[in-house]
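Hi team,

Below is the intake form for Dispatched RND transporter family member 3 from Dicentrarchus labrax. Please confirm the fields before the structure is written into the shared record.

FORM ID: S-0412
PROTEIN: Dispatched RND transporter family member 3
ORGANISM: Dicentrarchus labrax
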Amino acid sequence: MDVDDEPMLFQTSWGGEEEEEEEEEQEEEDGVAHAAGQSCFSGEAGVCGLWRAVGWVYTQPCASGMVLGVVVLLPCALFAYMLLYCPPLDIDLSYSAFEVHSHFSAERFDALAIAVKTQLGSWDRRRRDLDNSESDALRELLLERLGRQRSGAAAGRDKSTEPDLGQKEIEKHKNSHHRADENEDRSWDGNSTLPLIRRRRYAPNYYLQSQALWRIELVFVAQGKGDRNIFTPERLQTIHHVERLLMKHPQFHQFCWKPLEMLRDLPLGPSYCSPPSSLLSYLYPSERGGKIYYDGMGPDLADIQGSLSLAITHPQFYWYVDESLSPEHLSSSLLRSEIHFGAPLPSYYSLQDRADEQRSRFKNFVVQYADILAKQSTSQVKVLYGGTELFDDEVRHTFHNDMMLAVISGACITVLVYVLTSFSVFLTFFGLASIGLSCLMALFFYHVVFGVRYLGILNGVAAFVIIGIGVDDVFVFISTFRQASHLHQPQQRMIYTIKTAGRATFLTSFTTAAAYAANTFSQIPAVHDFGLFMALIVSCCWLWVSVLMPAALCVWTECAFSSLLLCVMLFVHALFSGLSASHGPLSDEDDDVALLSVEMEPDSDAAILSLSVETPLSPPGQQHVGVVSTNLQWALKHLVAEPAVERRKAVLGVFLLVLLLSAGCCCLLRPATHAPLLFRRDTNLQTLLALRSNLSGQGISCPMCSGVFMEKPHPLYTHTSSSAFKFSTHQQTPSTTTSTAPQSSLLTVYISKLDLGASTTLYRFSLNTSTPSPWKLCSTDHEEVSSFQAYNHPCSNYTTRMTVCVSHVYHPYPSWMITSTSCDPRHGWTPEFSFYAASSPQQRLYFAQRRLRPHPSRVCVTPPGCSISSGPDGPTQGTFYAPLPSDPSSAAKTKPSKTFGFNPCSGGACGHPAVRPLVDTGAMVFVVFGILGVNRTERRDNHVIGDMGSIILDPDFDIFQEMGRLCKICKAISANRQLVKPGGAQCLPSGNKLSSILPLLHPECHSLPEPNLLPGQLSHGAVGMHGGKVRWLSMAFESTTYKGKSSFQTYSDFLQWENFIQEQLASLPQSSALQRGFQTCEHWKQIFMEIIGVESALWSLLLSLAICVAAVSVFTAHPLLLLPVLITILGVISLVVAVMYWLGWEMGAVEAISLSILVGSSVDYCLHLVEGYLLAGETMPSTPAERQRRTLEAVNHVGVAIVSSAVTTVISTVPLFFCVIVPFAKFGQIVAINTAVSILFTLTVTVAMLASMAPARFSRPPGAVLKAILAVMAATALGAAVCWVGGQLGTLAWQSIST
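The structure came back. Fields below:
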């Protein structure tokens, strides 16, 4: 729709237009200069002198060379100063960098964590228990209180008897405590469980490597087709192979854990390294001297069903499997394992002796396992690996690899800039150098000026994004300088370039930096630091491009008229010797490729901005080629701009439909329904993180849960099942009993081959180990099998009969084949021998017969058909299962070991299954009393690294006065089955024997709930003592909250806990100190992290939009120029969010943070187009279709620059798509989508709106800009006042509701 010219909102009078029309009639070479530098030549003398000085500096090669040297040396010098004299800049890749430590959920949990660390030395389950002195002090304090109560109750009775009775009671508890300590100090005894109290880790005079200090975590996950049960022979053999492979490392014995219990296990000698803590200790027992040792070092698989039946009699069994396993259904989708490493290492006398050096040695050793474990996954088993050192190393390795993609991005951008600058090496170098130098300056300001000591993982995105942003500014400067080539005076041309390009790039850089700076208001440290760093790097990039590019343009232009020697001298003077000189593309006389040009209309005296080739004005032989820019400009003008202007109503109609559709899709975008992804789903890191919500808590380690510690060596007795496999109930097939089955034995089938060159390869099957010439034994190459085992009679589930046939019809050599039926006599096939294979999965082998003569059969490991045949399975093609070889390197074994098929539970020798304990699979919620909060007044930042603060204790907390109420609260919470798992209440700390004393102090403490923990597992309940008094207490409850849910779903669980605890505390008397108690959970910190991240990112989006509106209002100074920009931005954001919905994304923290910068990056291109519209009006004569004419000239003016910038931005973010770190990949995808949509809408929608409603004769007078500034300031003040009044009213309303 075309609208008439309306009165300008910010213009003082209409007289300015007549004055501008008179100015347009001046001479050609002074027209543009007067319009662009009006304030200089008609303004004050000081301003004019300043611009003349700037123009002189940037038109003198020597002065420009000095500017280049200063601009290059300054960032390098400041960066060197930062590295040498400032504290090092740490790189924080931890997940905790996203935690909001100023939030009440974080303050609560941090207060408890500080208290526990202060009292117990560590937070997690691997912490040491209370010191003996502290434990005794607590117990003596309770017994003393008990004695006082007994003494008070004895008033009025015989004083000679009752006090003695109370004293006897106290002595009884003391003696029982002493006996309990003696029992705990005894050595390992048979099947006894672990001691409940662990000895202090840091005791002196340890034996070498006798203390389990480090570990590798292994998780084997069943995958592939069929039943996802890890307890199958084929999968167990893979796991056994991996565990043995890790123990075969040459340096394993130097770091392995060597507990004293290993000395009794003879098969482990002479190293006596502890085998992996794994269920395979039951499934692969070893035999020595007629005894069975459950150490997992045996060569053959024992009976699966019997071994699991023995292992499940111990509660530690459940630590290794998932939650779906039950005694009735022995099936698990995964199997856990740990390999422990001991300290002190050789040449160290204790754990404290050079502890950092020991840890460094171990880290250098254990990271070697990463490459080994990464290759062990098969089609049936996925091998996941972790552990503190391995996991951290893989995170750093992943981050480093993703950052290396920035090198690829930079190389692609370098090539593209080289092409778009018309193959100018000089401009390409300095354009990219200005971007790199701005990064150094941003790091200096970030670390030294703002004092930020940490560089977060999100800051790595800057390496990709800044390339696209910086190249945008470079292109605008080059384009503007080239279009001012009609100005013959160099100073006028340079001043015009600096003012025009500087103003345009300042507005776009300001809005982009403001969009990033809006994230500094986020409470999340990582997001705050990311917003600050990106705002600094964008600002520095604009400043350095604005200072460096004019100098580079001056040097390059002047050198085009001088000799090669002069160029070299100038470059040496500018500290850039070594760059070869060539003709510059920006001069009018060079023979390089012209980037942009100005076309002179014959019917007008004024220069009209254009991008066409200037062929008529070039001397013969020096015509500008300009192929890239010319073709791109022609395409933009004739294929994009002119159709958009002519069909502007249709374009706006389609845009309106797209906007409505996008808005509808935005409403359908739902919050995240799963925990945020940090890495790609198929990676080891993310799979392990996802599985941890289904496994036990991080702090629970089970180094002494395997059969080595749980079982005594058993004598190898004769039983009916020792000669054959017995599989678990879900794998058994009906078969006769061993007593009635015929005697069976293993046989080995050897396979050799004969390569006939161009003919078919023949395969020979024989029971003889000898291989006649010219046959050769098959190697393991090409998935071939050299031998396999089978039975000569049906045995257990080995009931599939296979026949080997031979034919002598084919000459000169016979041919062999395998079939599941009888041999076919029609082709001369006669039976050679038969064997029996298994019908259930074990060692899977494929066989197939070739269709061509002489029809040989081949046996292979993979694939189906053995690459010689295709089609469905039949008698001569298919699969059979052979017994698993005891050694992966050799399939030939004629006699199984004594543990083959061993069933330890034959005859009902095993006991009943143990009850499943709790292993922290749910979120652990703590109810804390005696702590008021955390004091962080001395902290200077909100980062997770560094001092966490100190706790604020409640001076009114008295455990003896509140004893009955505490016991009552414990019972009430544990009885809530909706919140707490059965057996999940841990109201008392471990090791103090309080359960027998508390009932004597208060009757409410009778029958307190007992936690169902692993033997040796410490309770999460804790107390804090200071000065002979209990200062705080925390109860722990394993909740029903599943840690794998999304934050938005888990928030309802938090509210249930909060409401229930507040109800319990509200029922207490007003004078009770327990009313100041609170509930906290580490999982609550994580859910609020994501919730606050999404909310703060959306608020940042609104804030950046407000800043953008204010900046564009001042820049355009007209509502009809502001409106197209705002509509374009809203359309871009709506469509980008709609694309996210169409791609199946959900609104999580990563997506929200990425959206917060869309406004700043969306406004760039349409704002450049508006700037082109204003510049076109300064020199164009008045025409009937002036609005459309100015729009087309605006596209001619900035079209190539903004398209080039968009292409470089997209290419710079494409490498992010391949990042393993999901926030990087999501950010890159969103930026690329936003850039593509933004340039599309700018060249279509913004062009159509400018051609329809833009003011035809508006030229942005100074009065209009001033009024726009005043209007923005008034709107800002009004908005701030409304927000303040709303906040005050909300506070008053909340106070009235509370009272």
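SUMMARY LINE: The chain has a mean pLDDT of 75.

Thanks, M.
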